[in-house]
TrEMBL record:
CDD domains: YlqF. It comes from Zhongshania borealis. The keyword Protease does not apply. Residues 288-297 have a biased composition (Basic and acidic residues). This is Ribosome biogenesis GTPase A. Keywords: Cytoplasm, GTP-binding, Nucleotide-binding. InterPro entries: G_CP_dom, GTP-bd, GTP-bd_ortho_bundle_sf, GTP-bd_ribosome_bgen, GTPase_MTG1, P-loop_NTPase. Coiled coil: none annotated. NCBIfam families: GTPase_YlqF. Gene3D superfamilies: 1.10.1580.10, P-loop containing nucleotide triphosphate hydrolases (3.40.50.300). Signal peptide: none annotated.
Length: 341
């Protein structure tokens, strides 16, 4: 299943970001620390050009700390990129972001001009929360569901930095199917645009391989079954996710698993590592190359046109026709060609 969610306001927001970009000095892209690759907007990377960029790894309290550190090293290999891991548990650390902005523009620090920074990122990643922490007051509306911010907002922090809050955006085509699932698991996709069962199976499959110990502890299991279905069944029994008549209710356990993952109660979990993503990119490129080669071959065959059948093929066809003709039937009478007037 391909999960796509690209409502009209996101299309408009993307256009607005593109228009505003030339006027800003700095781009702050907020990524979800649990999915730093899947939450990175490929369009932003294209339109950013040489503009300096801070990539914030938000909600790092929910992510695996060792993997967050690995992602920071990986992301900083990109030109002009600095990274910063944040969590609402450490508001003082979020405030260090302002220092980092000033360090990136030493000339402007002398009060010559204001630094204009635009905050962009996927829905529900924590953009408005960061702005409120930086401003020390509630300026931007926040909420634990995607698409809370619906339009752009300019916020003057008063210390030589102006921030632009923007609505969370996804993109029209999510190329990597794993990314769609990871965005759905972490809560960036509206619940009406995804199926809990499908996403729950995806999450269970990943977790039994990547974080079996956390699952054992959370669901009080002696050992972890080796298929996602078997795990979901025992988890459902543990949690009483049953329908009338005592049948296992897979929908209920999938929803419960996803909600617990989002809330961080299963533990600190990251859904992708730099190594996994490198491998996935290779697989996607290979699949695309095969698709392109098949299309080129079809085109070539079409252009070469149809060939004449060989003698043996003609003979086989004739024998086939004779076999099919009902006994005693006559070949149709040849119709006289009409006289042309
Ligand atoms: N655990 C955790 N939750 C966070 C963190 N930052 C934000 N949140 C929660 O994530 C939810 C979304 O936060 P928002 O700031 O509204 O996200 P947004 O990116 O502005 O979302 P949209 O405007 O919908 O695009 C809220 O419930 C926040 O409390 C964090 O560091 N850790
Ligand atoms: Mg917002």
């Amino acid at each position: 299943m391909a999960i796509q969610w690209y409502p009209g306001h996101m299309h408009k927001a993307q256009k607005d970001i593109r228009e505003l970009l030339p006027q800003v000095d700095l781009l702050i892209e907020v990524l979800d620390a649990r999915i730093p690759y899947s939450s990175e907007n490929p369009a932003i990377e294209k339109i950013r050009g040489d503009k300096p960029c801070i990539k914030i790894l938000s909600k790092s309290d929910l992510a695996d700390p060792a993997v967050t550190a690995a992602w920071q090293v990986h992301l900083e290999q990109q030109r002009g990129v600095k990274t910063f891991a944040t969590t609402t548990d450490e508001p003082q650390k979020i405030k260090q972001l302002l220092e980092l902005c000033r360090r990136m523009f030493p000339a402007k620090d002398a009060g010559v001009k204001t630094i204009n920074a635009m905050i962009v990122g996927i829905p529900n990643v924590g953009k408005s929360t960061i702005i409120n922490t930086l401003a020390d007051r509630i300026i931007a509306k926040t909420g634990n569901e995607p698409a809370v911010t619906k339009s752009q907002q300019r916020i003057n922090l008063g210390s030589g930095i102006v921030l632009f809050d923007t609505p969370g955006i996804l993109w029209p085509k999510i190329e990597n199917p794993n990314s769609s699932y990871r965005l759905a698991v972490t809560g960036a996709i509206k619940s009406t645009a995804m199926e809990y069962d499908d996403v729950g199976f995806y999450a269970a499959d990943y977790l039994i391989k990547a974080y079996p110990e956390l699952l054992k502890e959370r669901f009080q299991l002696e050992s972890i079954p080796n298929t996602e279905l078997a795990f979901l069944e025992v988890a459902a029994l543990r949690r009483g996710a049953l329908s009338a008549g005592g049948r296992i209710n897979l929908h209920k356990i999938c929803e419960l698993l996803i909600n617990e993952l989002r809330a961080g109660t299963v533990g600190r979990i990251t859904l992708e590592t730099p190594e996994m993503v490198v491998q996935e990119k290779i697989e996607i490129a290979e699949a695309q190359a095969k698709k392109d080669a098949d299309a080129a071959e079809r085109k070539r065959r079409f252009k070469a046109g149809s060939r004449n059948p060989s003698e043996s093929e003609l003979a086989a066809q004739e024998a086939n026709n004779a076999k099919r003709a009902p006994r005693g039937s006559r070949p149709p009478k040849a119709t006289k060609p009409r006289k042309s007037k």
